[in-house]
Specification:
It is built from twelve helices and 15 strands. The chain has 324 residues and is α/β, with parallel strands linked by helices.
Length: 324
């Protein structure tokens, strides 16, 4: 995918421009000299896009004609828009809006981008959409994860690939690890619950996952936008982490007690079967292919450096219980 032609900056459209990932992405693209149009649904979000150096635009994410008007002149379109549920006790229906964004939103984005003559589209996905059968490390060609709440994610990837091929566009799919950042809702909830002693380690604590700091994820989307190829890549840091390591190290940095352990059956009573199923799903993978093909490197190579940054930021802001 080509967004820098002969050294000249380009016009890039970002859906999800005001989210945890999107606002970092807009700022980085602007800093690299690009003109960035960010989808914004409210006056407050329009002001946020402007403050980042972008141009706010109103459009319906599910309507290609509306999006095409906002995308006029765009050379690359990026979807970082999501609606991840933040409830502790999850139900399949809680993913409805996010599923619609990943499927219908994807189709509308690519069709709109093709209408305005854009050369490429960058698609956000997640690394646990695929898996290894035994929980061992896996790569981009791993088999689909059969869990029902991931069907729309895989369908979104299929729509991106097939629609892009039909319309003659380069498609870059970035499967990201679990995002974390000082301003990410899930990270803040984790920190608050660890401080209160209400976030236990479920089971033996050996469920293993791959993370990526939101700053690094934004840098990866910039790299994909400015590269000269489409493709499918995993974007994670350099070391998977177990649930036990993550919770224990996070608690220690926060000055909280080490989290207690609870058996899965007890956790299901409190949080429901789906939440526990998600928590106990291992997804260890690597970004070696993406690093090799784009030159991207994570600023926070492991969760340890990332947690240090988060706790430092929280202390500066006066996060409850940490002070300044």
């Amino acid at each position: 995918m080509l967004s820098v032609d002969g050294g000249h900056a380009t016009r890039i459209f970002v859906a999800g421009a005001t989210g945890v990932l999107g606002r970092r992405l807009v700022g980085r693209l602007v800093a690299n000299g690009h003109t960035v149009v960010g989808l914004a649904r409210t006056p407050e979000k329009e002001r946020l896009v402007k403050s980042l150096g972008g141009i706010p635009a109103r459009a319906d994410l599910f309507d290609a004609k509306s999006l095409a008007s906002a995308m006029a002149g765009t050379e690359v379109a990026i979807r970082t828009a999501t609606s991840i549920p933040t409830k502790t006790r999850l139900r399949p229906e809680d993913f409805h809006t996010n599923d619609r964004i990943r499927t219908q939103g994807t189709r509308a984005m690519i069709e709109a981008a093709a209408r305005v003559g854009a050369r490429g589209y960058v698609h956000e996905s997640i690394v646990w959409a695929v898996r290894s059968s035994d929980g061992s490390p896996y790569g981009e060609e791993a088999t689909p994860n059969p869990q029902s709440y991931l069907r729309a994610t895989l369908e979104g990837e299929r729509i991106a690939r097939q629609t892009g091929e039909q319309l003659g566009m380069d498609i870059a799919i970035l499967r990201c690890g679990l995002f974390y950042a000082p301003d990410a809702a899930h990270t803040r909830t984790m920190g608050e619950r660890l401080m209160k002693g209400t976030l236990p380690i479920v089971g033996n604590g050996q469920t293993t996952g791959s993370l990526v700091h939101a700053d690094d994820a934004a840098a990866a989307f910039v790299a994909a936008s400015e590269s000269q190829r489409g493709g499918l890549w995993h974007v994670v840091d350099n070391r998977p982490v177990t649930l036990e390591e993550l919770f224990t190290e996070f608690a220690r940095r926060l000055g909280a007690r080490s989290p207690r352990r609870v058996p899965p059956w007890l956790a299901k009573l409190a949080a429901g079967s789906l939440s526990v199923e998600i928590l106990l799903t291992s997804f260890p993978t690597s970004s070696i292919r993406f690093q090799r093909e784009t030159g991207w490197r994570p600023k926070y190579p492991t969760f340890r450096e990332g947690l240090d940054q988060i706790v430092g930021a929280w202390k500066s802001e006066g996060f409850p219980g940490l002070g300044r």
